[in-house]
Design brief:
It is a single chain. The protein folds into 3 domains: 68 residues; 199 residues, Rossmann fold (3-Layer(aba) Sandwich); 91 residues, Rossmann fold (3-Layer(aba) Sandwich). 37% of the residues lie in helices and 16% in strands. The strands form 3 sheets. Strands 4-5-13-10-11-12 form a 6-stranded mixed β-sheet, sandwiched between helices. Helix 7 crosses helix 8 and helix 11 packs across helix 12. The longest helix has 16 residues. The model has no long low-confidence stretch (mean pLDDT 96).
Length: 388
């Protein structure tokens, strides 16, 4: 198979760079870089009917992924997670067409496996051997696992109060773990310093171009698994925001490929009341989100005070006609139990936040009971046993 990757493009100033050498962010404006593809050529060569029969993982979309040589793919079978009809939960909440995509069934038990598989694979192709990254939780275990699979060195910086399961994942896979007193933004500063001091390549969220390509495969899968008719709405728990912007990128690409029509889902963001920079910026009509002071929530994955891709998240919400809302830790805990007791799914706190948000969007008429609504559960609740 052939990747149609052509170059990297800055999502803010439009500058272009080669995809054949390591880059992190735009050297001119410091914003996010996206891999771009020759989609007109891909449209001539590819047909969505080619997909059935391919391996049931995210690399089934290889031609639209950034790795040029299949031998460089570092995979543990990530992707193609199931979409379950949530009939009992839907009845409880007054929804007729409610679905949950369960990313907790990925390797390393979270959606982070997608982004790190893509990033580590491209790092391998570019000849990089030592990576570093800050993490609030699940990304740490994923980088550690994929670096181990690739035979790479991994350095991870995490808040000391990150879930214990994530710390154990890093330790057991042989990565280098540094626990810090602070938040993921503090861990990020230390990761960047370590990259400079030790010659490591930093793969922080949206601060390198390839993690988003792993996350975008959720969008491709949603379209394929729902027989190329996208849901009316997608509700996503938002920390760094790579999932929302990745899916939005996928819908844009699929539309250009002729795989879907122009009707895209409305994108809905949920954050914690204790850390809601994107929700605040959305409500204020701002282009960028100011950092959140004293961030606090039990949902480690959305305890992100500042996101480099803030403008991309806000752009996706507004272009899609979506909305943004906050929920409390109490509502998150209640919804974890609600989903488990009605659907038998032990979802993570971040996934439960989408259920709490759904109730609020229905109450405000941002969503209506007859719409097709997809919730993203981003990880397994088994990672958070100490919270329960």
């Amino acid at each position: 198979m052939k990747s149609y990757l052509t170059h990297l493009e800055c999502t803010y100033c439009g500058g272009t760079l080669s995809a054949d050498e390591p880059h992190r962010i735009c050297p001119d404006c410091g914003k996010v870089l996206y891999p771009r593809y020759d989609l007109p050529a891909a449209r001539k060569a590819l047909d969505r009917e080619m997909l059935p029969g391919r391996p049931a993982n995210m690399w089934r979309y290889f031609e639209l992924m950034p790795v040029k040589d299949e031998a460089n793919v570092v995979t543990l079978g990530e992707g193609f997670t199931p979409i379950f009809p949530a009939d009992r939960l839907g009845r409880d909440m007054g929804c007729k067409n409610l679905y949950i995509k369960d990313e907790g069934l990925n390797p390393t038990a979270s959606f982070k496996a997608r982004g790190l598989s893509a990033a580590v694979s491209k790092a391998k192709e570019l000849g990089l051997t030592a990576l570093t990254m800050p993490s609030a939780g699940n990304a740490a275990g994923s980088l550690a696992a994929y670096a181990a699979k690739a035979g790479m060195e991994a350095h991870i910086f995490m808040p000391r109060d990150a879930p214990r399961a994530n710390q154990i994942e890093v330790d057991i896979t042989g990565a280098n773990l540094t626990l810090i007193d602070g938040l993921i933004t503090d861990a990020g500063r230390l990761s960047r310093q370590a990259a400079q001091d030790k010659g490591l390549f930093d793969v922080s969220t949206l601060q390198e171009p390839y993690r988003v390509e792993g996350k975008k495969t959720m969008g491709y899968e949603i379209a394929e698994q729902m027989d190329w008719t996208l849901p009316d709405a997608i509700i996503y728990p938002t920390g760094g925001g790579t999932g929302i912007v990745g899916m939005w990128k996928a819908f844009e690409e699929m539309e250009e490929l002729g795989w879907i029509d122009g009707k895209r889902p409305k994108m809905f963001c949920v954050q914690s009341e204790g850390c809601a920079p994107i929700v605040r910026a959305f409500r204020e009509g701002a282009e960028f989100a100011e950092p959140w002071e004293n961030a606090e929530t039990m949902a480690a994955g959305i305890r992100v005070p500042a996101a480099i891709g803030d403008y991309l998240i806000l752009r996706a919400l507004r272009e899609s006609g979506g909305d943004a809302v906050t929920v409390t830790d109490g509502e998150i805990m209640e919804c974890m139990r609600q989903v488990a007791s009605l659907e038998g799914m032990f979802i993570c706190p971040e996934g439960a936040a989408t259920v709490a948000a759904l109730g609020k969007f229905l109450a405000s008429n941002a969503l209506t009971p007859d719409q097709s609504i997809l919730l993203l559960n981003t990880g397994s609740g088994l990672k958070y046993l100490e919270l329960l």
